[in-house]
Amino acid sequence: MSDTTARPDPLSWTCPAPVRDRPRVVMGHGGGGAMSAELIEQVVLPGLGGPVRAALTDSAVVELGGARIAFSTDSFVVRPLFFPGGSIGDLAVNGTVNDLAMSGARAAFLSCGLILEEGVELDTVSRVAEALGAAARAAGVRVVTGDTKVVESGHGDGVYINTSGIGLIPAGVDLRPERVTPGDVVVVSGAIGVHGVAIMSERENLRFETGIESDCAALGGLVDAMLSVTPDLHVLRDPTRGGLAASLNEIAAASGCGVVVRERSVPVPQPVAGACAMLGLDPMYVANEGKLVAFVPREHADAVLAAMRAHPLGREAAVIGEAVTDHPGMVVARTGLGGTRVVDMPMGEQLPRIC
């Protein structure tokens, strides 16, 4: 790390877990971990009149006119708006496209809602819109409707974006954590932790010997390649907020299976490993925006892995573990020294505002 004029404050990089019965929202409620789930299950869903325990997946699968449709919505509040490897515009498209892809759907249409802060430069809005349009064209999805609102100066952070998307799910595809069975192979599509570290380095003016760029990308094509091998994938998840650890814990809890991860098999690039070691972070909990984790029946694992590695977004795909009958609902990692550690669901948020 090079010297900078204003030294970053490490305390600003972590949101400590607050007391669980606090009466107000804290940053940890947006971290994608246990606090986020509690907020939804204990406050939001009861208010909506829904079940206390609902299927809290990235997209809903509904039937309409005999077709199975995936429907998803997401909001993006990242700071800064532009970062190495992407922008809030890229995130707004790719994040929703990927949520649909995790249901096996190829995104067809998106909506886009812009919330602009009074005083933001029109050139900034134009750059965001251009990035959003370019990402939509690259993902093969059309933005067909939208909305714009403006809030008073000091009541926003330049630009916030909400996108919703719909896509069709092919016949025979049934991706949900309840289908996970002991013996399933756990595969990740590439190196983890890149997006979170890229955001942090830009936000806090950190400089590392090797540049780190966000992995932000649309994963629809990679999912298509995997499904072309077999539609019998059990579950897919893009490990964004809360990182790989949160996704694995959510799948373990919903499936009732245990998950064992071989720590040394998890691909962590050296710049990410170095940054996390310096800052006291665990790469397993750092956000990604262009990676997926898959639970694949063992008999299809080799062929699916080969198809992933043949795709540009899956060249570094690796088998990192398996689903087991032991310790149901729990994720454990086998360390390089032969020990075992529990990989818990994150409580707060290591890096606030990463998407």
UniProtKB/TrEMBL annotation:
Pfam families: AIRS, AIRS_C. Residues 182-327 form the PurM-like C-terminal domain. It comes from Streptomyces prasinus. NCBIfam families: hypE. Residues 58-169 form the PurM-like N-terminal domain. The gene is hypE. InterPro entries: HypE, PurM-like_C_dom, PurM-like_C_sf, PurM-like_N, PurM-like_N_sf. Belongs to the HypE family. This is Hydrogenase expression/formation protein HypE. It comes from the Bacteria. Coiled coil: none annotated.
